[in-house]
Amino acid sequence: MLTDRRTSFDTVHATAQEEAYQHIKRGIRTGELRPGMRLAPDDIAAEIGTSRMPVREALNRLATEGLIVNRPNRGSVVRVLTEKEVREVFAMRSVLEGLAATLAAENVTTNDIHDLEQLLQRMHRSGLNASEWITAHRQFHERLCTIADAPQLMRQIASLHSVSEPLMRVWLEGKPSTDYVHDRHEELIGALKARDGAKVEALMRAHILRCLLYTSDAADDMQCVD
Fold it and tell me: Under DSSP, is residue 75 helix (H, G, I), strand (E, B) or coil?
């Protein structure tokens, strides 16, 4: 069982607007709402049992964050990233998560290591189940970032994960070997155990940039379905 330290970038919200925001964002992250897909406020409102206004507010917020595009007189669609934008996202992730890993090396506890090892085992057990593997992989990175105890940094990283996770899911649909990814995570845990901040930062940055090589092809495969 994971320890009580918060392991997710997502937070619990009570308002209808926040519920709609989290619902749409989750759909984008999981790949249910693919790039280019049209978002109908009436349909979304019916799905979550709310009115149209909170959904429209959520769409405006997501547009501000760059996850969707509001087109005049044509509605909203999930944003399609260019190759340049994908590279920028992963470059930013490599720097920010490298920093988070460095801070984590200063704060890590035995319970933290236990949680990361559990999540790595969950990734191993998922086999070729893409959804389970990606979820465990995201939770591993989230859990590591929480150890850094840097809320503002986490918020920045969370916004980038929302963009990169759909690409990871498309990549894994081809069922490539994830042995490389597992090896890198084992090395990250080893560096954290040693409290070697420089090494864990270098490992994290290299790991994320390597993932870019996988997901850049996935970005090309994401077709507009509007």
Answer: strand
